[in-house]
Amino acid sequence: MVTSSVVVGAGLALAAPSASAAGDFYTPPSTFAAQPGSIIKSEPSPLLLQIPGVANQWPGTAKRLMYTSSYQDGKPAATTGTVIEPTAPWRGKGSRPTVVVGPGTIGQADQCAASRLMAFPMSVDITKPSVAVNYTAPEMYYLLTNGVRVFVADYIGMGTPGIHTYVNRRETGYAMLDGARAALRSSGAPADAPVGFAGYSQGGGAAASAAELAQTYAPDLNVRATYAGAPPADLSKVIDAIDGTTIAGAIGFAINGLTARYPVVQKVVQTETNAAGKAALRKISQQCIGDIILSFAFQNTRNWTRTGESLSAVINRHPEVQEVVAEQRIGHLKPNAPVFLEGGLHDDVIPYGQVAQLATDWRAQGADVRFVTNPTPPILTKTIVNHVVPMLATLLPGMEFLLAEFNR
């Protein structure tokens, strides 16, 4: 496994890949093509229940790709993902479409990458210990069954060297857009073949970011539709909502990612966190979704700060950090294709109001937005039940929306 750069509250401790990892697929070569969407390398990837060595198995043939994307400053970044060419034919209009799926919150450590978990959606490493889960299968298999090519993104820093920049608006959006480019090139598809984006929660934010960045960052793509479920469009609202829930540790994912890219955030984190907070952030940087639940469920970030304030309150005291959080806000740009946007009225992780505001912001710019409200009543709040149930309820309508737009 390639060791990630670990974010430490008192500063950055950089751990370079070990010599034993030099031949690992996730270690980028010393030089690679700088053009976004370029394929750096690829290898076959088994899927769940497939027999190794047998060609043309259902639901498709998968390849793990390393491809070029961009860091937020525009410099080339090597990242990874998985493209699956379906065995089912595309029976709709035009060329076979491609949907890039952004995974929801699955972690920050290298072992959490979705491309590592395509043969079996769960991995348990007792040496760490760590529990990694890939739950992109429902939308992936549904799309493949309908003859749609699927690309599942890992995001920048997930699997590859460096910290995964969780909910970074530009880097997650870039990874999705360049994943589409790489998928088309890898499959030999026409450059103007239809493209869509899909995701829920973190994946919904990545899909929403890709949707609004497409016209400026990837005007070459023929984007036709986006499904964005429960996107964390406004981190200033989301951080406070997640505090004290079963996935409170996800706040650490966000802080670690921001610390890695913004020196002003690093400085504030170093100053404002106590020893427990620094240790928590360091530990979280090497954890997956299952790990943070076991380690930090229902904890409050008040325990991480020197003043006993929540991290949300600390952010509100520092205008320079507020500016960084505001940079991650989705909704300032116009999607260039229709969007199916969903928000849970009582979502206990992703506040409904900031999703509704995203719909308002996009519509004010003339975007074609179908906004759906999931009415699930409050159930065991702070346990993320009210976040998971809407995901299941919206999956099929979201996929059908994409298929309908491809057939226009």
Automatic annotation (TrEMBL):
Keywords carried by this UniProt record: Signal
One example GO MF annotation: triacylglycerol lipase activity
Keyword hit for Signal: yes
Keyword Phosphoprotein on entry: no
InterPro entries: AB_hydrolase_fold (IPR029058), Lipase_secreted (IPR005152)
SUPFAM superfamilies the record matches: alpha/beta-Hydrolases
UniProt-listed Pfam families: LIP
GO biological process, one term: lipid catabolic process
Range of residues in the leader sequence: 1-21
Location of region: Disordered: 74-97
PANTHER family xref list: LIPASE 5 (PTHR34853:SF1), PTHR34853
Name of this protein: Putative inactive lipase
Organism listed in the record: Gordonia insulae
